[in-house]
């Protein structure tokens, strides 16, 4: 009976510890996403790239497109939600909901428009997507978006 009680106490203690770790990681992932948005809003390409993992696929392409995009558009990103879904250290997966404000959503070419949408540089006004993060040099950084951008109806979301 004593062993059973100790096992139950240990189980709940470990569950509480895991919950605390998850909440701490969720906060740091949220800060990483906000750091990226702040850099984008300031059109600071160096800070944008510093907020992204060195393992980011097509990193050079993203940097070049960001330079071109910021020269072309005046845009503002706002983080609506950041929900941690899974941690497989040093990686984490989160559901992101973002608002994107811009006057002109046009792009010079169709491939540029498609890339800007899929990389979250210029998605619909409010979108939801899954993003991966990597813990690198003591900081969580954006790695890669792993889902389609799903448009969220702003009026409906705010009514809920």
Find the structural class using helix and strand composition. alpha+beta
Q: What's the CATH C level?
A: Alpha Beta
How many β-strand runs?
A: 5
What global shape is seen?
globular
Rg from alpha-carbon coordinates: 19 Å
CATH architecture: Roll
Proportion of residues in helical segments: 40-55%
Oligomeric state of the chains in view: single chain
Counting structural domains, the number is 1
Write the H/E string, N to C: HHHEEHEEEH
Task: Outline the fold blueprint.
Elements: H1 2-41, H2 45-50, H3 59-72, E1 75-88, E2 91-102, H4 110-118, E3 126-136, E4 139-145, E5 150-151, H5 154-159
Antiparallel strand pairs: 1-2, 2-3, 3-4, 3-5
Give structural notes.
- With 160 residues, this protein is an alpha+beta fold.
- The chain has one domain: Nuclear Transport Factor 2, Chain: A (Roll).
- 47% of the residues lie in helices and 29% in strands.
- The chain is built from five helices and five strands; from the N terminus they run αααββαβββα.
- It has helices at residues 2-41, 45-50, 59-72, 110-118, 154-159; strands at 75-88, 91-102, 126-136, 139-145, 150-151.
- Strands 1, 2, 3, 4 and 5 form a five-stranded antiparallel beta sheet that branches.
- Strand 1 (75-88) and strand 2 (91-102) form a beta hairpin.
- The chain is globular, with a radius of gyration of 19 Å.
- Mean pLDDT is 84; it is low at 4-20.
Summed up:
The chain is α+β, with helices and mostly antiparallel strands. It has helices spanning 2-41, 45-50, 59-72, 110-118, 154-159, and strands at residues 75-88, 91-102, 126-136, 139-145, 150-151.
């Amino acid at each position: 009976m004593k062993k059973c009680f100790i096992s139950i106490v240990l189980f709940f203690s470990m569950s509480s510890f895991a919950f605390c770790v998850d909440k701490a990681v969720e906060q740091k992932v949220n800060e990483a996403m906000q750091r990226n948005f702040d850099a984008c809003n300031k059109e600071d390409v160096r800070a944008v790239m510093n907020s992204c993992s060195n393992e980011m696929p097509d990193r050079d392409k993203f940097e070049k497109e960001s330079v071109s995009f910021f020269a072309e558009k005046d845009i503002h990103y706002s983080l609506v939600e950041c929900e941690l879904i899974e941690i497989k250290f040093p990686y984490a997966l989160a559901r992101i909901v973002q608002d994107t404000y811009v006057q002109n959503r046009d792009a010079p070419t169709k491939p540029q428009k498609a890339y800007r949408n899929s990389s979250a540089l210029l998605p619909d006004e409010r979108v939801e997507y899954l993003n991966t993060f990597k813990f690198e040099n003591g900081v969580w950084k954006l790695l890669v978006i792993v889902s389609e951008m799903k448009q969220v109806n702003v009026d409906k979301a705010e009514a809920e």
